[in-house]
Every structure is written in C-alpha cells, then in structure tokens.
Specification:
heterodimer; A: 231 residues; alpha/beta; Rossmann fold; 6-stranded mixed sheet; 4-stranded antiparallel sheet; 7 helices; B: 471 residues; 6-stranded mixed barrel; 55% helix
Chain lengths: 231, 471
C-alpha cells in the first residue's frame, strides 16, 4: 500500500535574480514499511523533497498524495493539522522543547491532539522504553546527551502514530555509537511497528541500513535502488 | 501540558532577561504611580484648601461678579430665594458673604488686603476657617525658650528648621517636629508653655473685631489684641474706614491668601463698606460634593435662581488655579510619557530578542502540528505574564509610599518651601490614595504590552516554517 505518491513534482525558488530549480520532475512512491534514504550532494534537493512530502512546502508543479490527501488542496491551517496527524518529523538538531522533560516532549503532540491523559502517559512510557530512555522521563533536554535527545525526538515523532517519519540528517550531529544506537531503534520500530521511515542523509551508516536508496542530483532522481539489506 | 504551563516555563528559560524586563515594567509603574500620586495629591490638597477656606463648592453670585468682582456687582439676597435653595436635598446652608479690598495698617506698616465679611455663627457650614486658628507658633523667642529646656538633639534641629511656623493643633505640631509618642507626654507641656498662641475666632453679635491671616499678622507684626486699621472704597464710591481689634490669627493654606486675609463679621463688613443688607456672594454649603452630584445640584439651583443670579461652581470661580494645575499636570504627563517610552523600548527589545532566539523553535512547533494561533496565544501569554509580574510588583511597592505620603505629607522647608510659597502654594506635598489613576497607569502598561504582543503575533503568523527551521 502506497503511503506517499509523488507525481512529476517541481519546485522552483526565485531568489532575487536567479531562478533555482530545487526539485525537477520527481516521481516517486513510498510503501508502508519502507526504510528509505534520499541521498545526494549538497544542493541536490534532498531537504526540499522532504519538505514537500511533509507538507512544509508546496510544489511549483505536480502533485503529492499522502495517505489519500492531495497536499496542494489543503489550506495552510489544514496542512498543520495534516502534519500533526500523519507525519512525524525528526530534525538534524533534535529541536526538543527545552523547558519540557523528555516525557513531556514525547507527549506534546498527543496533548495537541487532546489524547486522554492516561492514554498519553501509557504511550509516552511505551515509547521511552522503546528508545531505551525509560529512566530519563523527567530529564530536561539540557540534561541529555545528543544521542539521547535524538532518541526522544524519534519517540516524539512516533507518538501520535503517524503514517511515516521524515528524518532530515538525523545522525549528522551524533557520534558513531549514538548514531548506531539510534539506527538500531529506528530499524526495530520499522520492523516491529511497520513504521515507514524516509531519511535524507549524507551518512554512510544510514545508507548501509537502508532497504531503498534514492539518489538525487540537481533535483532529479538519478537512481532508486532497493537493496537486499534486511534489518 | 497546558499552554499556560508551557508559557510559564518559557518565561523562566531566560531568567535574567525576564527579570530585567519585568523590572523595567516594575520601575516604570512604581515611579509613575508614586509621581502621579504626589502630583494628584498636591492638586487635590490645593483644590480642597481653596474650596474649604475660600470659595466653597458653590456660590450664588450676580452674573457680572465673576468677571468683575466688585461691590457694585453685589446683590441683596431675597430670603424666599435663600429658603428655596436651602430646601434642596444636597444643600446644607446658604452663607452670605461680603468680599472686597482695603488697605490694612498696624503700627507703621501697611498691606493691601482682602476683606471678607461672614456670619461667624454660620460660616462653618460652608468653610472651615474657624478650624484654622493658630494655636501654637514657633516664634524665635518661643524656640529659644524651648531649646533651653534640654530637648533631644533632633527636636532642637527641627525647631530651628521650623522657626516662624504656625500650627493649628497639636497633631500637626507633633508630626512636623517629629515628636515621638514616647516623648510627647514630656515635650507637649513645654510646647504649650512656650509656644501657645492666643486668640479666638469671631463671635456673632459683637462688632469691632477681626481675624487675620498668619502671613499678614507676621508682616504687620501684630498679635491678638492689637488694633488693625482698614481703609478703602465703599459701595458707590463712598470712603470706607474702620478700626478693629485683632481677635485671632488663622493659618490659611494658600500663602497668597494667608498674606492678605482679613475676616470681619458680615455686619461689620457691611458697615465698613456702607452697603447695608448687601452681599457679594452667598456660599452654598453642600452635603455630597462628588462631581456628579455637584453638577446636578448646580443645575437644580440654577433653575431656581433664574437669570437674576448665577450659581457658580468652584471650578468656574478658581479658573486660574485650575489652569495652573492643568499646565503642571501636562508637564507631569509628559514626564510619565517619557518613562513609558523607555519601558516600551525595553519590552520591544525583549520581544525582538525572544522572537529571534526562538525562531527555529517556533518553526519546529508549527511543523509538528501546533497551529500558529495557538502558538501566538502562548507567546502573548508569556509577554503578558512578564508585564503583569512587573505591574503587580510596581503597584504593591508603591502602596506603602502612597499611604505613608497621605498620612504624613511631605513638608518642604527652607528655600524649597520659599519657592513653593512664591508660586502661591502651600509647601506641603501629600499623596492621593489609590484611585482611578492607578487603573490608568496599569491600562497604559497593558497597552504597551498589547502592542508588543501584537507585534509578536504578527511575526508568528508571517512565520515561514522552512526558513525558521534553517535559522
């Protein structure tokens, strides 16, 4: 079952006098349970493509369907609700809310969605267990290492049971050990919960784990390879 | 996690900045309230002094008297009209008065004075002159005598500071000289012994007596029992002359009035000016002096008097004082405006810093599903909390000073006092107790915050999530 369908999508930026075509005629589909990475040199359009899939940006041409929603037809406020319900984001620099504890950060989106308190607490506990931070519920981000913060970010992204997770360079700021731990957790979640992960990365460690590698160059898909790697 | 909890925690993520911003609001509110309280308290005292010692709240006058206050513009009060006025529910009494000018002389000194003739049995229903009788006076001789009694050092110093001052009661004296409760039982008998001042107020039915202002008494070098000569022009150009025994001295709150005040009985004044049965005005003593009730009473009485006589309120009669106060009020408002401008910049500085620092966080919050309206409300709440902390602290800190300033008004001495007197003001600065002006200061700060909040809300609604995430 296709979770994301990208049909002949273009994205052009008009910076002062220069027109920059960040994404050029991309057509892709992501299945439920995919563990895919988008790779390519800097400026190849990886982050732009991720932003388009996540509804953070609108394509100049073409269409993107996510979980049956045609993103171009959604109003800005509907797009925010759409992201909250269907997309989990993991950012390169963790982006946790500094004044909240790990548990509160994980429960934040669920509280936006008005989950009952008991369910929220149960789900938060379950996710912090899954990412190996069951003993850090009450730690603030400043009390956690980079790897731990990113694991909290993954738990937060998974909390509302989204259709898929978009992770933009999630290991870029992590040391090897933390990166491997994070990838182990993501693979486990992918395997056990059939969660779809779409990464944008330069990190070879991520590429090695991926079951699908999409290469972008100058905004175009130059290869889309399914590997035989099994997690 | 509720938004208000998150807002509260965000407030303290940069503790120093929050405290500095709240402190700037605190100081602005505190200084504005204290300054305003002193300013309005001073005006209030001046108005109440002039109302209680001179004009009263309402007066019945010949319509031409306001522009040309001479005996020729006096009138003969119709007893029926007076009786109808007195039947008004808010009227306590109608006190007839004659007012004119004369040259006063005692010994080899003379002074142009204002002569007021009133019925001594009735005047306290409209004015409180009889309560202003000088009971104690720190003449140089009295001060020397008191100092010889081995008084505490601080009191001796205060005696020097207040030499020449007159006091209407012991409370006033104890406060100004700083006599402690513990010392008062020992010191007050000494003060009574050396500084008591003789004299009584006028009595109805007697003739040939006058009560004069303390300033005038000092200038002429008179004490009760001395003789005062009055010379001037009477009604329709007749000459007016009379000889009066000074029965007592009053301490009028307005220095200008104090230096020129002479009060006779109404009968004596009519005799002096050759105007039997005439008055220049009738002071209408009223029960409820609130602005609304005063206006209503004036309207009711004007309907009774018709066009023959006018009912003037104290504002019409003291237009000069009001204009003077209004000019001063505006300069005070400018000062407070500058104060608020400074905090407005402080608050905006904080907003700008906060918006810049948290741009990426805002981008993240919107990207994971927080609606911009909700985010804006949370940030607005943070700003509001920061301001409200400053406002509450400022209001609380100002209260002791305002209450103390009301109970024990600031009294200037020396050069400062002289400067005040030169401007015709009593050198006393009381505060006004919390009133609507407190509310207005708070409203102004809240408006500044509202503008700051509007700015941050606009920034959030215009936030480009992708750019914010790159920040």
């Amino acid at each position: 079952m296709k979770v994301v369908e990208i049909n002949d999508v273009y994205k052009t930026y008009h910076d002062t006098e220069v027109e920059v075509r960040a994404v050029s005629g991309v057509t892709l589909g992501f299945e439920k349970g995919d563990f895919a990475v988008i790779v390519g040199p800097s400026g190849s359009g990886k982050t732009t493509l991720l932003n388009l899939i996540g509804g953070l940006d609108q394509p100049t041409a073409g269409e993107i369907l996510v979980a049956g929603h045609r993103l171009s037809e959604l109003k800005p406020s509907e797009l925010i609700d759409f992201r909250m319900e269907h997309v989990g984001f993991v950012f390169q620099s963790y982006n946790l809310i500094p004044v909240l504890t790990a548990a509160e950060n994980v429960g934040f989106i669920m509280s936006l969605q008005k989950w009952p308190k008991e369910k929220r607490i149960a789900r938060t506990g379950e996710l912090l267990d899954a990412v190996g931070l069951s003993d850090r519920h009450n730690s603030r981000p400043s009390q956690l290492s980079g790897g731990q913060q990113q694991r909290v970010a993954v738990a937060r992204a998974l909390a509302p049971r989204p259709e898929f997770i978009l992770a933009d360079e999630p290991t870029a700021n992590l040391d090897s050990k933390s990166a491997e731990t994070l990838l182990d957790i993501m693979e486990k979640l992918n395997r056990e919960e059939e969660m779809t992960f779409i990464f944008s990365t330069h990190d070879v460690r991520v590429m090695k784990r991926a079951r699908r590698v999409i290469t972008l160059e100058d905004g175009k898909v130059v290869s889309d390879v399914r590997t035989n790697h099994t997690s | 996690m509720k938004d208000r909890q998150l807002a509260w925690r965000n407030l303290w993520r940069n503790r120093k900045r929050t405290l500095i911003t709240a402190a700037s609001v605190f100081f602005a509110v505190f200084f504005a309230l204290v300054m305003r309280s002193f300013q309005l308290g001073t005006y209030d005292k001046m108005y109440s002094d002039v109302i209680q010692s001179y004009s009263g709240y309402l007066q019945l006058q010949n319509p031409a008297y306001l522009d040309e206050p001479t005996l020729d513009n006096g009138f003969t009060a119709d007893p029926d009209l007076v009786s109808r006025i007195e039947q008004d529910p808010n009227v306590e009494a109608v006190v007839p008065r004659m007012e004119s000018f004369a040259l006063a002389a005692a010994g080899n000194r003379t002074q142009g004075v204002m002569v007021i003739g009133m019925d001594p049995g009735n005047d306290n229903k409209a004015l409180n002159i009889r309560n202003r009788m000088v009971r104690f006076k720190l003449t140089p001789m009295a001060v020397e005598a008191l100092k010889s009694e081995n008084l505490p050092g601080r009191l001796s110093k205060n005696l020097d500071l207040f030499t020449g001052e007159a006091f209407t009661d012991t409370d006033d004296l104890v406060t100004i000289l700083g006599i402690s409760e513990r010392d008062s039982s020992a010191i007050l008998p000494l003060v009574r012994k050396h500084a008591s001042f003789p004299g009584e107020y006028l009595m109805g039915g007697e003739t040939g007596f006058a009560v004069i202002g303390n300033g005038l008494s000092d200038y002429l070098g008179t004490v009760p029992g001395d003789t005062l000569v009055l010379m001037g022009q009477g009604w329709h150009g007749t000459s007016a002359a009379g000889l009066y025994v000074i029965r007592g001295v009053v301490n009028m709150p307005n220095p200008e009035l104090d230096n020129r005040f002479v009060c006779l009985t109404l009968d004596d004044a009519r005799l002096l000016y050759g105007a039997p049965g005439m008055v220049t005005s009738s002071i209408i003593g009223i029960r409820d002096a609130s602005e609304k009730e005063l206006a209503a009473t004036q309207a009711r009485l004007s309907a009774i008097t018709g066009k023959e006589l006018s009912v003037r309120n104290w504002k019409e009669m003291n237009a000069l004082l009001l204009n003077q106060m209004e000019a001063d009020n505006r300069s005070g408002a400018i000062m407070i405006g500058i104060l608020y401008l400074v905090i407005a910049f402080g608050v905006f500085g904080t907003v700008l810093m906060m918006m810049a620092e948290r741009r990426r966080e805002f981008g993240m919050l919107v990207s994971i599903g927080m609606r911009k309206g909700r985010l804006a409300a949370m940030v607005g709440l943070e700003m509001l909390l920061m301001g409200v902390i400053g406002i509450i602290a400022g209001v609380i800190a100002s209260l002791p000073i305002v209450f103390l300033g009301h109970a024990k008004p600031l009294r200037f001495t020396g050069e400062m006092a002289r400067m005040y007197e030169d401007y015709g003001f009593d050198p006393v600065m009381p505060t006004l107790l919390p009133d609507t002006f407190y509310l207005w200061q708070v409203v102004v700060v809240l408006l500044i915050l509202a503008v700051a909040i509007a700015f941050s809300v606009r920034k959030i609604f215009k936030l480009n999530v992708i750019n914010a995430l790159r920040a």
